[in-house]
Amino acid sequence: MSKKRGLSHEEKRTRMLEYFFEKKDFYQLKELEKSLPKEKGITPMSVKDVLTSLVDDCMVDTEKIGTSVYFWAFPSKASQNRKRKINELEGQLEDVRQKRQLTEQQINKSSIGREVSDDRDACLAQLASMQQERQALLTDIQKYRECDPEVMQTMKDETVTAHEAVNRWTDNIFSTKSWAKNKFGFASDVLDKQFGIPEDFDYLD
């Protein structure tokens, strides 16, 4: 013999609301935990969670009076809530209908001149061919980029800058060697050997 299936959370919510609607009274949590198991078959341990979910969804009202917290729900308010929800959904539905209508108008407008035809297919094929040819030409241009006058001028300018920088650092090295010779009395060949300076080290022409 199979065990009796317990109530789902949604079934407990429905039964608890029915209890409030039937009784039309105010209750504390302890009272509900005592009466709901007998009246609606909701286990005492789940009463608080179900009640909290109904309060969060504004389906059950609550108010603290002194040190006690009371809960209630009347059919009239539930009806008002349903009407308000229906109005909200109808408003959202109308917005969706308007957006759909606008989208359909835009699609129809964009479709003008794009009807399927032999001429259109031929134009699309020609466009694809020309795009491929353009890409091939761009690839060829990259091969001859080094011969581009602008690229060559840039390389010349960079060469001049590099040449000036090399001679500037060469001058710095000679100045440092001269300072070391005067300060510490080192011979020039000793400094060259110590710092790996080649014998033919000199300015670039």
Report what the structure shows.
Among the domains are: 9-73, Orthogonal Bundle (Arc Repressor Mutant, subunit A); 77-108. The chain is built from 7 helices and 2 strands, in the order αααββαααα. It has helices spanning 9-23, 29-40, 44-56, 75-111, 118-143, 149-184, 188-195; strands at residues 61-65, 68-72. Strands 1-2 form a two-stranded antiparallel ribbon. A hairpin with a 2-residue loop joins strand 1 and strand 2. The model has no long low-confidence stretch (mean pLDDT 82).
Number of distinct helices: 7
**What CATH architecture of the domain at 9-73 would you give?**
Orthogonal Bundle
> Which fold name fills CATH's third level, the topology of the domain at 9-73?
Arc Repressor Mutant, subunit A
Shape call: elongated
Rg, Cα atoms, Å: 45 Å
Question: TL;DR?
Answer:
The protein has 205 residues and is mostly helical. Helices cover 72% and strands 5% of the residues.
Task: Jot down its keywords.
mainly alpha; Arc Repressor Mutant, subunit A; 205 residues; two-stranded antiparallel ribbon; 5% strand
